[in-house]
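*** Backbone structure tokens ***
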Amino acid sequence: MRYFVYLSYDGTRFHGWQIQPNGISVEGEIERCLSTILRTPMDIVGAGRTDAGVHASLMVAHFDLPETPLPNGLCKDGRLDCEQLAYKVNRMLPPDISIHKIEQVDDELHARFSATLRTYNYFVHTNKNPFKRHYSYECHFDLDFNKMNEAAKVLLEYEDFACFCKSHTDVKTTLCKVTEAEWKNLGDGCWVFVVSANRFLRNMVRAIVGTLVEVGRGRMTIDEFRLVIEGKKRTQAGESMPGNALFLVDIKYSPPAPQGGAF
């Protein structure tokens, strides 16, 4: 039986989603709790692999449960009591990870490969604000967000984003279909970059934002931004922005998965 897990986490103290040999990860914490409660080794598969320090207001993962007797308190009408399991996992997880819902899905539905759209938000604030410093990038120079939005639209014209992919990563393809890329004014000197695509490369969003910042500072033209994409070299793009301001916020599926909701 396959189950989807809808969750969110503050990535500040984690070395990313994926299990690391020498660091704590979100995936590792959830597997530890599931294995303890279900009394059998459990593996989970996430919809993506957020980097160190990156957050998720909505992450989706799945696990497969073998047809074995369920522990006491987790069986309801002969099936896994998903609500009770979510409750028990939340009790065991650290406070910076929250399980919102667990539910059974078709065995063919895959948390990663069945996802058709992912959306990230990157937050920037231009005024010093002690309450935003942990989850938004504090910008100390003037940015032309109109120019940055003009450059962001260029992303929709291309599919090969090798220039925004972290170097020396084992990826089979650098092709992605970006369907949304826009800076939105949140007021009071706060902005958010909203970007959606069918898939993202490692470090891609933070590299895009860093390059758009170069445009906003007047250090790169729109035409030069286009040449960066066409050049397909990471060294030509801007610096990668800090991970603390980046959030995975939505994931869509085909066929549609039962909705755990966006939190």
